[in-house]
Design goal:
The protein has 768 residues and is an alpha+beta fold. It is built from 20 helices and 29 strands. The termini are far apart. The structure holds ligand MTE, hypoxanthine and dioxothiomolybdenum(VI) ion.
């Protein structure tokens, strides 16, 4: 069915349905992990954390902790019955530090008590003697000392060195890109309940229940079959709960195994921010050769990222960074060097965009520099370097860009946002004003969809139809606010021809759908939508066969829609057909399995096709900056974003708006700051500033590209939308840079985030 036929049918797919839990969210009845009924014997867990960035643990005296009011038990590394590891890919991170601590905030012990307050108070009473060691506190120091969590990688095409030296013009620059805390509203949490005969039931606020199941099993010396992990919803994750929720779940489970009682570990905001990983901050050096038209001849990048103490997801994050340091641009001659630095800070992890934003930020900076050097409109230089159609269309990692709609998106946005006229108006404004300065920028996004590790691109679903014609839906995806569950329910509703209200959307549960990948890489609806469609289609096929038999018609004469089934001249309710089928012993339950087609990527040779397709978008941002204080405001944003044939335009619009605002926070106000002792000083909303409603642009125009069906056979030709819009916010940064650039100095050295302080530093630096 195409979009028009679906509309005629009152189909669910393509409709702007509200989030399935919207009524529960707004009335406070949506149960997050901490809202679940507490078992009668529940204990609360707190964690004792390292006070040092790098030290040998000389002695740990927990006697006062054990003596404290309400305390039932404590646990140290040596008490762990199974494997003391929470590293998701490389086994290089301990759940509880055994001999050495490597960052301030690292978990050393856990304590279980009758109340949360008792546990948290007791955790402060440990007497720990440290033998301090030299810490490495930033990526550049790590590079100098060859301190890496993983080997460095390089990706080269053409002859960049020759292309750069042979180019008419050349520029070099070092850029720093800040990290970012996920700042989900619900902090990390897990509750574990013992089941009979050694079983464990783990509720976890996790994007990856399967990984929680496996890591909990290993830590508690069990097998996967003995552990079930359930997650109905997450109060925001943004990548922060892709790998690191497992650590929290492991600690809760360890205390459950020791005490034989249910245990809950809930981090408070400060502990969450100190103890769990964030977006990687980067230092990037680039060296670019270009011609007078602004076209890049060759470019060399050297990236150093702060990975923290362990590999965690830093390998794939930095790989994705390398895949996206072209953004929308054809780079003929390019060299990308990527250092994955080991620092004595918390282990950094996934965050919306997963390295993509940092790679794209670097190339956009270079492009902006080229334009400013040549005195051209940066948009001209961007367009000049865009991937071509049928030529100049092979990426530096060998994938051909087959679905390029950069020109279409840019043309539409340039017109809709009235870019030309407003650029002139900005120039006019700046001539007339000395203190307030305006700036405007249009930046594009091209984002690769699929996990870059090919094997992760698989999903499963489980669909039951009950005798009354209602439907139980499960799949391996997790709901973190992005609207995945309603989208998949829409797909199943249309497949069975029933209303969405006939479907009960159920929690992710490892005992229902096994071996699921994390809900990440924006692929949740692509993969789970297909898996659920396949499961529902199996049932529909059985029902079709049955109806054809029962009513003596051809299978092609059987049709489902609007809660009814027609078979030749007969029509009946879906529920009636289901009753009849049940009576005739037709199976009404099915699993679905999907694996993304076409992709294959060989990391060892950096060749193949890591991405099924690309998602595109572009944004124009206009800002005003007070050049005496560095204060700034976004005055207008225009976005054109490509969601393919949207499964649910309401959800997608929310993702585009939310992603953009979160990206703007990353590049303007959110600043992580560690002191010389390696202590994070920005671990609460008082010192770490995320955008609020009042930071929204007063004029915020978001358009989802129409008639933009995905060229690949995705679920209803939709496109993934979770991460790509985040990177539209790079336009905010360049609008600020545009505002503070002057004729005398068109190249301000502005670091990200462009806080008022950073803006003032850049302005100061421009003075002769
Ligand atoms: N939207 C909300 N409301 N909350 C979140 O935690 N996470 C983002 C994005 N949008 C997130 C969100 C990230 S990092 C990803 S990878 C995708 O959602 C994951 O969900 P999807 O694959 O279903 O889009
Ligand atoms: N994106 C997000 N999460 C991931 C990826 C990816 O490409 N690979 C492994 N985890
Ligand atoms: Mo998203 S960073 O892939 O969880």
């Amino acid at each position: 069915m195409d979009a028009t036929a679906r509309k005629a049918r009152k189909a669910a797919v393509g409709t702007a349905l509200p989030h399935d839990s919207a009524h529960l969210h707004v009335s406070g009845r949506a149960a997050y992990t901490d809202d679940l009924p507490e078992p009668r014997d529940l204990l609360h867990v707190a964690v004792g954390m390292s006070a040092k960035a790098h030290a040998r643990l000389r002695s740990i005296d927990l006697s006062d902790v054990l003596d404290a009011e309400g305390v039932v038990d404590v646990c140290l590394a040596a008490d762990i019955p199974g494997e003391n590891n929470c590293g998701p890919i490389v086994h290089d991170e301990e759940i509880l530090a055994a001999d050495t601590v490597e960052y301030v905030g690292q978990a050393i012990f856990a304590v279980a008590a009758r109340t949360v307050e008792q546990a948290r108070r007791a955790a402060q009473l440990a007497k720990i003697e440290y033998e301090e060691l030299e810490p490495i506190l930033d990526p550049l120091a790590a590079v100098e000392k060859d301190s890496f969590v993983l080997p460095s990688e390089t990706l080269t095409r053409g002859d960049p060195a020759a292309a750069i030296t042979g180019a008419p013009r050349r520029l070099q620059r070092r850029i720093t890109i800040g990290g970012q805390d996920q700042f989900y509203l619900e902090g990390h949490i897990s509750m574990c309940t013992p089941q009979e005969d050694g079983g464990l039931l783990v509720y976890s606020s996790t994007q990856h229940p399967d990984e929680v199941q496996h890591l909990v099993a290993k830590a508690t010396a069990r097998a996967a079959k003995d552990v079930v992990c359930i997650c109905r919803r997450i109060g925001g994750a943004f990548g922060g709960k892709e790998s690191q929720a497992a650590t929290i779940a492991c600690i809760a489970a360890l205390m459950t195994v020791r005490t034989g009682r249910s245990c809950k570990l809930r981090l408070d905001r400060d502990v969450d921010m100190i103890m769990t990983g964030k977006r990687h901050d980067f230092v990037v050096d680039y060296d670019v050769g270009f011609d007078e038209t602004g076209r890049i001849r060759g470019i060399d990048f050297s990236f150093a990222s702060r990975c923290g103490i362990s590999a965690d997801l830093s390998g794939p994050v930095n790989d994705r960074m390398m895949f996206h340091s072209d953004n929308a641009y054809f780079l003929d001659n390019v060299n990308i060097e990527s250092h994955r630095c080991k620092t004595n800070t918390v282990s950094n992890t996934a965050f919306r965009g997963f390295g993509g934003p940092q790679g794209m930020f670097a190339i956009e900076y270079a492009i902006d520099d080229i334009a400013r050097t040549l005195g051209m409109d940066p948009l001209e230089v961007r367009r000049r370097n865009y991937y071509g159609v049928g030529e100049r269309d092979v990426t530096h990692y060998g994938q051909t860009v087959e679905d390029n709609i950069l020109d279409l998106v840019t043309d539409k946005l340039e017109t809709d946002a009235d870019y030309r006229r407003r650029r002139a108006a900005v120039r006019e404004f700046n001539r007339a004003n000395t203190v307030l300065k305006r700036g405007i920028a249009l930046t594009p996004v091209k984002f690769g969809i699929s996990f870059t590790s090919t094997h992760l691109n698989q999903a499963g679903a489980l669909v039951h139809v009950y005798r009354d014609g209602t439907v139980h839906l499960n799949h391996g995806g997790t709901e973190m606010g992005q609207g995945l569950y309603i989208k998949v329910a829409q797909v199943v509703a249309d497949e069975l021809g029933v209303p969405v209200s006939a479907i009960r959307i159920n929690a992710a549960d490892t005992s229902k759908v096994p071996n699921a990948s994390a809900t990440a890489a924006s692929s949740g609806s692509d993969m789970n939508g297909k898996a659920a469609q396949i499961a529902a289609r199996k049932i529909r096929t059985r029902l079709t066969e049955f109806a054809a038999r029962h009513f003596s018609v051809n299978e092609s004469a059987v049709d489902f829609g609007d809660g009814r089934v027609s078979a030749g001249t007969e029509t009946l309710d879906f529920a009636e057909l289901v009753q009849l089928a049940w009576f005739e012993r037709v199976s009404l339950s099915a699993t679905g399995f999907y694996k993304t087609p076409k992709i294959n990527y060989d990391r060892s040779t950096s060749s193949g096709r890591p991405f099924f397709y690309y998602a595109y978008g572009a944004a124009v941002t206009e800002v005003v900056v007070d050049t005496l204080t560095g204060e700034n405001r976004i005055v207008r944003v225009d976005i054109v974003h490509d969601c393919g044939d949207s499964l649910n335009p309401a959800m997608d619009l929310g993702q585009v708006e939310g992603g953009f605002v979160q990206g703007a926070g990353w590049l303007t106000s959110e600043e992580l700051w560690w002191n010389d002792a390696g202590e994070l000083q920005t671990h609460a909303p008082s010192t770490y500033k995320i955008p609020t409603c009042s930071d929204l642009a007063p004029e915020f125009n978001v358009t989802l590209l129409e008639n933009a069906a995905n060229r690949e056979d995705t679920i209803y030709r939709s496109k993934a939308v979770g991460e790509p819009p985040f990177m539209l916010a790079i336009s905010v940064f360049h609008a600020i840079r545009d505002a503070i650039a002057t004729d005398g100095n068109p190249l301000p050295a502005l670091d990200a985030p462009a806080t008022p302080e950073a803006i003032l530093r850049a302005i100061e630096g421009m003075k002769p």
